[in-house]
Every structure is written in structure tokens, then in C-alpha cells.
Amino acid sequence: MLRISWTAKKTNGTVLEEAHTTRLLVSKIRKRQATFFGHVMRREKLENLVTTGMLEGKRSRGKQREKLIEGLTDWLKAGKSLEAIEATKDRKKWRTMIANAVKQGT
């Protein structure tokens, strides 16, 4: 469409700027993750414990995986994960946080 050769050394960001578009897939995935996270946190059952990492036991060896809540707090710019967890209790506040994050992009 833009007639950019595959051998041209251009970053994805510059190609997206030339096409006057943004990354939609990543923001859609993050939005769905955030809505699911809010749903799980309001239920306060076993899924709540698993997603917050409050289960007891030994951690596996090696580099630890990034938790879902850490990725969402970075995306939502909520500061600490505790603030994000408290925000899920109020559905309107949680939805506005998600909407603001989607507007700003990834």
C-alpha cells in the first residue's frame, strides 16, 4: 500500500506514522484484559486470589513472569497495583480509567 521495500530499514513506528494509523490490536487486547480483570476482582473468589498473587507456596526458579496486574497498572498509569484493585470496586471509575487509557493509546 505504501510501497515500502522490505529491505528498507524503517521502524514500525515510522511506517505507522506514514500510514496515519495506530496500533489497534494491542489496545483492544489491553482493554479486554482490563475489563476481565475488573470482573474477576469484583467477584472476590479464587480467581481474585490467583490474579493478585496472594496464594501461598514456593515460587518457581528463574526470572519471574510479569503479573497481569503489573502490566495493567503500567498501561492504566494507576501508580500502584493496590490503587488499581481498589478502583475495580467502583465500576464507573474503572470504566473511565480504561477509556482514558484507550484514548491515550499504548
From TrEMBL:
Keywords: Endonuclease, Hydrolase, Nuclease. The keyword Nuclease applies. GO terms for molecular function: endonuclease activity. This is Endonuclease-reverse transcriptase. It comes from Plakobranchus ocellatus. The lineage of its organism: Eukaryota, Metazoa, Spiralia, Lophotrochozoa, Mollusca.
